[in-house]
UniProtKB/TrEMBL annotation:
Gene: htpG
Residue span of region A: 1-348
Protein's UniProt name: Chaperone protein HtpG
Record lineage: Bacteria, Bacillati, Actinomycetota, Actinomycetes, Mycobacteriales
Keywords for the protein's UniProt record, in alphabetical order: ATP-binding, Chaperone, Cytoplasm, Nucleotide-binding, Stress response
Superkingdom: Bacteria
């Protein structure tokens, strides 16, 4: 029956992960069964889909199901399905190694988890459900044959660093996972998994909604007549209800059922922050059950991430990561969409052009955004959790989704100088605007501290004007795509000219400004020529109160932070010259004007100009083109003062 057997080692990271899981203490070791049943359900879904798509695939799909088999004498528990199965290579890729990004991340999180409950949640979140079997078993055997193949593969391991692979000539299609159970240990949460009632309890709790029948042989004891022995018979019983939650109205589904279904479709262990059931009739008929998670997945900003929406057609599974159903900025949304009129042979390429999918996508997007808007209006604590976890992703929609931009602006929140810890909506910002203020002021940067200590902020602090503090990388992008909110334009305080004086103040100071322009005209010209490699203009500033100088860009120029982002990603960025603004009231600037007018020591003046520019560049968080030259000039200048 069997042939060649080979022993292999786990991938190094997988071996360390197994060690962490086996030797960590979890409060709920029951989770292993939910993970194995979920994997079996996925295998059945995939077989039915492949049988539709490949008419030459010789498989029987008339009785797809999951079996649970208990052997009390041998203390084994087997979960078996007649689904798609796995080839030998797939076993090595999916079981022998963790074939997905995030392996190192889950190891780090497991080590950092402060309590057992936190560790337990990581099992589903990182898609490592199969490995949870080693919490309850000291040996695991997998026998699997892929649909359409003649031979099978037996995988076996004790979870201690190695596993064996065996070629098997005869085996049923699908997969069976046999757990050689550890002894019962109630103190450590290790229950008797050879108990029928315990298995039925766990299936009811975690997997009742699975669309495929979960069967188990159960013992029935008859009530004997007087003087007779009770008769025990074995019957096969379906122990789950198989009710698709998305086909039921919200008042028919309990909160616990929604929670478990969310965990099933998302492979996560957090609880949903919001449940969104939908039903559409008419031109395009579909049902949907969507969830907003309460915790951001670890791969939310990874390139290899997968979408979270499962697509069904008339309850037939089509795909589990349908990117076409929601825009990328809503990729954190999980759930199921069941369309009525799509072809069962639909492909990703067809979906991209399908008119019905496009209509469903528009409706799902509007429904999710309106749900977030209601959450913001009526459940501020829940909204705060949402924004903390997913706000950065949602703001991507401000660039990509012009149709829903107004709604996105309404439901977005931002840090501002109005509060050191809280966030503000744009509507709240507008309500607090000063009389006559027509712009929503903002500044982007790498950190709040860097922005608040920037010279650009000085005049705004002095006049009590609120400034949005934008520190997410995406903020650098959307501020250029969005022109206004509620008729108020967005204005970067680090770009263009800033004039914060009222008309009366401008008239009163007009003569003084003209006098300053004449007084500093020669210095401005000289600085522009001296620093011509770095700046295109020098002018007097109205935004500085305490700093000597700052550097500003044109209204539509690229910010320094955005330049850094492009350079970090390997994209060439052309050198753009910006504008040096001087504070005419600062002693350094007035002293430089006097020295330049007297034509004292041209070399010394040039060095001072370079130091002035370098200080302004560093103050805004910029990078010096020649740090060694700057520090040498500064050291020489300091040495003369000692």
């Amino acid at each position: 029956m069997t042939a060649h057997t080979e022993q292999l080692e786990f991938q190094a990271e997988t071996r360390q992960l197994l060690d962490l899981m086996v030797h960590s203490i979890y409060t709920n070791k029951d989770s292993f069964l939910r993970e194995l049943i979920s994997n079996a359900s996925d295998a059945l879904d995939k077989l039915r889909l492949e049988s539709y798509q490949d008419k030459d695939l010789n498989v029987d799909v008339s009785d797809l199901h999951i079996e649970i088999d208990i052997d009390k004498a041998a203390r084994t528990l087997t979960i078996r399905d007649n689904g798609i199965g796995m080839s030998r290579d797939e076993v090595v890729d999916l079981i022998g190694t963790l074939a997905k990004s995030g392996t190192a991340e889950v190891r780090r999180k497991l080590k950092e988890a402060k309590d057992a409950a936190a560790s337990e949640e990581l099992i589903g979140q990182f898609g490592i459900g199969f490995y949870s079997t080693f919490m309850v078993a000291d040996k695991v055997t997998l026998l699997t044959r892929r649909a359409g193949e003649d031979h099978a593969t037996r995988w076996e391991s004790t979870g201690e660093g190695t596993y064996t692979l065996e070629h098997v000539n005869e085996a049923p299609q699908g997969s069976s996972v046999t757990l050689h159970l550890m002894p019962e240990d109630s103190e450590n949460g290790l229950h008797d998994y050879t108990s029928e009632w315990k298995i039925k309890e766990l299936v009811k709790k975690y997997s009742d909604f699975i669309a495929w029948p979960i069967r188990m042989d159960v013992a029935r004891t008859s009530t004997p007549a007087e003087g007779e022995e009770p008769e025990v018979t074995i019957e096969t019983e379906t122990i789950n209800s198989m009710k698709a939650l998305w086909t039921r109205s919200k008042d028919e589904v309990s909160e616990d059922e929604y929670k478990e279904f969310y965990k099933h479709v998302s492979h996560a262990w957090d609880e949903p922050l919001e449940v969104i059931p939908m039903k559409a009739e008419g031109t395009f008929e579909y049902q949907a059950l969507l969830f907003i998670p309460s915790t951001a997945p670890f791969d939310l900003f990874m390139r290899e991430r997968k979408a979270g929406i499962h697509l069904y057609v008339k309850r037939v599974f089509i795909m589990d990561d349908c990117e076409e159903l929601v825009p990328d900025y809503l990729r954190f949304v999980k759930g199921v969409v069941d369309a009525q009129d799509l072809s069962l042979n639909v492909s990703r390429e067809i979906l991209q052009q399908d008119r019905q999918i496009a209509a469903i996508r528009r409706r799902l997007t509007k429904k999710v955004l309106s749900t977030i808007k209601d959450m913001k209006a009526n459940e501020p604590e829940k909204y705060s959790t949402f924004w903390t976890e997913f706000g950065r992703a949602l703001k991507e929609g401000l660039m990509a989704d012009a149709d829903n931009r107004k709604t996105l602006l309404d439901i977005s929140s931002f840090a501002s100088t109005n509060s050191e810890e809280g966030v503000t909506t744009l509507a709240e910002y507008v309500e607090r605007m000063k009389d006559g203020q027509e712009q929503i002021y903002f500044m982007t940067g790498e950190s709040r501290h860097l922005i608040e200590s920037s010279p650009h902020m000085e005049a705004f602090k002095a006049k009590g004007l609120e400034v949005l503090v934008l520190t997410d990388p995406v903020d650098e992008m959307w501020v250029d795509a969005v022109s206004d909110f509620d008729g108020k334009t967005f204005q970067s305080i680090a770009k263009g000219e800033v004039d914060l004086d009222t008309e009366d103040e401008k008239k009163a100071a007009e003569a003084e400004r003209e006098e300053k322009e004449k007084e500093f005209g020669e210095l401005l010209t000289w600085l522009t020529e001296t620093l011509s490699d770095d700046i295109k203009e020098t002018r007097l500033s109205t935004r500085l109160t305490t700093s000597a100088a700052c550097i500003v860009g044109d209204a539509f120029s690229m910010s320094p932070t955005l330049e850094k982002m492009y350079k970090a990603s390997g994209q060439p960025v052309p050198h753009s010259k910006r504008i040096l603004e001087l504070n005419p009231e600062h002693p350094l600037v007035s002293g430089l004007r006097e020295a330049q007018a007297a034509n004292d020591n041209a070399e010394n003046l040039t060095e001072t100009a370079q130091l002035l520019y370098g200080m302004a560049l560093l103050a805004e968080g910029g990078e010096l083109s020649d740090p060694a030259h700057f520090t040498r000039l500064l050291a020489d200048r300091l040495a003369r003062t000692v």
